[in-house]
Amino acid sequence: MTVLPFLTAGWIFLAGVYGMVTSRDIVHAVGCLAVAQSSTYVLLLTVGYRRGGIAPYFTDTPLRTRTVDPVVQALALTDVVVGATVTALLLALAIQIRKRHGTVDPDALTGLRG
Amino acid sequence: MSRSARIRLFWAAAVVFAVVYTLACTGLPHFGTTVHPYGSRAVAASLRQRTANVVSSINFDQRALDTLGEESILFASVLGTTALLRHARDERVGRPRAGRVLPSTRLLGLVMVPLTLLTGVYIVAHGQLSPGGGFQGGVILATGLHMVYVAADYLVLKRIRPLGVLDVADACGAGAFVALGFAGLIAGAAFLQNVLPLGTFGEISSGGLVPLLNAAVGIEVGSGIIVLLASFLDQAVEVRSETDSGSGERT
After folding, report:
1. What is the reported pLDDT for B249?
2. Cα(B204)–Cα(B189) distance, integer angstroms
């Protein structure tokens, strides 16, 4: 089953989106977005895995050692940073919504208000 | 859209996604394949640049321009959060009460705060040699400072946290990345090209521009996250809504 790790990423993504769709609380929805996004970490690391490979740094390993793909690891780092910043920004919005509208239920946020 | 219609729409979309995604996955190169053309080239380029940590070499040398975009996103998000969470005119700001902390927690905090800060500096400084770098080390630095909040209370954290300086440090870290990029242009090469002496492979001074960019990012991330958490903590601990009784909240 070499396709299983890829499918795991898809499953995590769908679980996160399901949580967002059924969410009754904005903070919960932001958490679900983080889950959906974490599927991309699994996908990236799965793409970059090389059988028998070790972490891609050569401080105390011989230069010919087989390593996993460092390019996707760098992408995963970018992914983590952007994910954290998006979460912070959305949580700040959630605080403002709670203050201005008095609710954190996305279904109750219907009217536009200045 | 009603709730049940939305969930039905989700399931329809989820089935389509699951089928198409599964088909796409079966066409991908096998899991654990030994053929990674980009990976092999990145490792070779990293060894040529005498940077032992290949991921750092990719982030701060081979793809440094992308990392400039990434840290700009971080900077913009800190800016946005600070703007969103500023005090509004109709909000009352209360003074938080000092909290009670167990002596054992206080002692552990006293030991752990310098240790965590030291670890953060180590991770930033050794980004070119071992797993870590500016982003990871910056987060550890910011977390280390917030252990004061756990070990003492909010008032102590507020006293030792120079927010004004950190605001400037955040901007300087972001600016230093661009300024280091111009070093390449001044030397007659491309923007963000690694033009500094590369040093000896495996030494802390190796990698040319990589450790300097790591330090700039470390400062930016560390101060940025402290500023970010400061605005959240401020909302949680100090700002009171109109309906609140107004008595001091526990910190």
Report:
1. 44
2. 24
Give the pLDDT band (50/70/90) at residue A4. very high
Domains of chain A: 4-108 (1.10.287.3510)
3-state secondary structure of B32: strand
User: Which has the minimum average pLDDT: A12-21, A53-62, B228-237, B242-251?
Assistant: B242-251
pTM for the model: 0.88
The average pLDDT across B134-150 equals 92
Residue that has been written with the tokens 């070990």 in this structure: B151
Answer whether B224's CB lies under 8 Å from B74's CB.
yes
ipTM score assigned to the predicted complex: 0.88
The share of chain B scoring above pLDDT 90, in percent, equals: 55
Which secondary structure element, helix H or strand E, spans residue B239, and what is its range?
strand B239-240
CA dist B32 → A76, B35, B234 (Å): 17, 9, 47
State how far the Cα of A13 lies from the Cα of A28, in Å rounded to an integer: 15
- List the single residue in B54, B66, B235 with the smallest CB-CB distance to A56: B54
**Is the pLDDT confidence value at B251 over 50?**
no
| Nearest-Cα residue of chain B relative to residue A8 | B22
Chosen for mutation from B55, B123, B140, B226 (greatest number of chain A CBs closer than 10 Å) is: B55
Residue A50, token pair as written in the block: 């090389």
Written as one letter, the residue type at B237 is: V
**CA A104 to the chain's CA centroid:** 22
Q: Which of B14, B30, B59 sits opposite A14 (nearest CB)?
A: B14
Which of B7, B47, B232 lies closest to A22 in CB terms? B7
